[in-house]
């Protein structure tokens, strides 16, 4: 009788698990001891070895012996089976290390410590080790992700390209007692004070789609160039607003955190836009799908809000039309929608 023909129908055998049983039994010379060392029962080890023998068409152990004695074929196959087990162990360890590798994420300085802590905590629930890196300047975050110094970054983008949007307004230390703050009311006359009221822009908003419309509005309503300032950081901008009558361009969440009184801008509706970008050919969808809500809260965005909506504006109102129709020298006093 010739050698047994391998049964190719046994192709569904768990090759790694079967090789693990074979190696453990073969090295110890006992099905009972080998099975225990491999963390399985003796019947399971026997079935797995039998599945290998059926797949390969040769016996691995002498069935007549009391101990698990390798056949010549078994001795030939044992080194290869060891390599399979070792490769599987290395693969498992690499997978575990990859999961534990920190996800370095460049985030804007507008994220609060509490917001970032909650984001990190929620990431852990999804098995993601998130390592936020606070970067004030939007351009620097874009460069970090481009140069692959971080795995991903929350970039400042125009609202039409944004995943998350945050409405901006003007905040002051004193309650302005109005529904909106009109920039034109900051204009000074000939008997101007030594230091007219200023609007402070924090680094996050020093981007063309926010800064440039504000600059055009400043010029259109007759403010001095110095009345629109870009601060080196949020702390400096907030300190100016807290210590004077100056105004801080910020989100409602930032105003609440800083104990400032927030109002929408009367002539326009500035909006921050954010999108998650991954380095090189990476795909940020896994992080965005699992942590999108936490990222929105961290940025001060409302995931269910209408992107770019002005919470203080009348429904259907067009900011550009309101600006064009309003006389510069005489702001209206329509039941509270008045001056700063």
UniProtKB/TrEMBL annotation:
InterPro entries in the cross-refs: LysR_HTH_N, WH-like_DNA-bd_sf, WH_DNA-bd_sf
Span list, region Disordered: 298-340
SUPFAM superfamilies referenced in this protein's UniProt entry, alphabetically: Winged helix' DNA-binding domain
Top-level taxonomic group: Bacteria
Extent of Low complexity compositional bias: 300-328
GO molecular function: DNA-binding transcription factor activity; transcription cis-regulatory region binding
Sequence ranges assigned to domain HTH lysR-type in this UniProt record: 14-71
Keywords assigned by UniProt, alphabetized: Transcription, Transcription regulation
Family, per entry: Belongs to the LysR transcriptional regulatory family.
PANTHER family: HTH-TYPE TRANSCRIPTIONAL REGULATOR, HTH-TYPE TRANSCRIPTIONAL REGULATOR CYSL
Name of the protein in question: LysR family transcriptional regulator
Native species: Streptomyces minutiscleroticus
Lineage: Bacteria, Bacillati, Actinomycetota, Actinomycetes, Kitasatosporales
């Amino acid at each position: 009788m010739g050698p047994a023909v391998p049964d190719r129908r046994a192709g569904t055998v768990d090759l790694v698990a079967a090789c693990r049983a074979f190696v453990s039994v073969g090295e110890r010379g006992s099905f009972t001891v080998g099975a225990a060392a491999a963390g399985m029962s003796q019947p399971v080890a026997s079935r797995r070895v039998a599945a290998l023998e059926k797949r390969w068409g040769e016996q691995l152990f002498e069935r007549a012996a009391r101990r698990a004695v390798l056949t010549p074929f078994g001795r030939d196959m044992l080194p290869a089976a060891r390599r399979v087990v070792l490769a599987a162990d290395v693969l498992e360890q690499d997978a575990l290390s990859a999961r534990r590798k920190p996800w370095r994420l460049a985030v804007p300085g507008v994220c609060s410590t509490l917001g970032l802590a909650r984001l990190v905590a929620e990431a852990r629930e999804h098995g993601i080790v998130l390592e936020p890196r606070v970067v004030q300047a939007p351009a620097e975050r874009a460069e970090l992700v481009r140069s692959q110094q971080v795995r991903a970054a929350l970039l400042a983008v125009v609202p039409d390209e944004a995943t998350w949007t945050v409405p901006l307004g003007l905040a002051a230390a004193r309650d302005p007692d109005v529904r909106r703050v009109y920039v034109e009311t900051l204009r000074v006359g000939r008997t101007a004070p030594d230091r007219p009221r200023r609007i402070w822009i924090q680094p996050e908003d020093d981007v063309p789609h926010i800064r440039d419309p504000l600059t055009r509005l400043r010029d259109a309503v007759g403010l001095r160039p110095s009345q629109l300032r870009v601060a080196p950081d949020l702390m400096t901008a907030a300190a100016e607003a807290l210590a004077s009558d100056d105004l801080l361009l910020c989100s409602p969440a930032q105003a609440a955190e800083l104990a400032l009184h927030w109002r929408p801008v009367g002539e326009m509706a500035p909006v921050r836009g954010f999108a998650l970008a991954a380095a090189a050919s990476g795909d940020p969808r896994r992080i965005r799908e699992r942590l999108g809500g936490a990222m929105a809260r961290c940025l001060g965005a409302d995931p269910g809000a209408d992107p770019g909506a002005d919470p203080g504006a009348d429904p259907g109102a067009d900011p550009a039309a309101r600006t064009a129709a309003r006389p510069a020298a005489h702001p209206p006093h329509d039941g509270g929608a008045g001056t700063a």
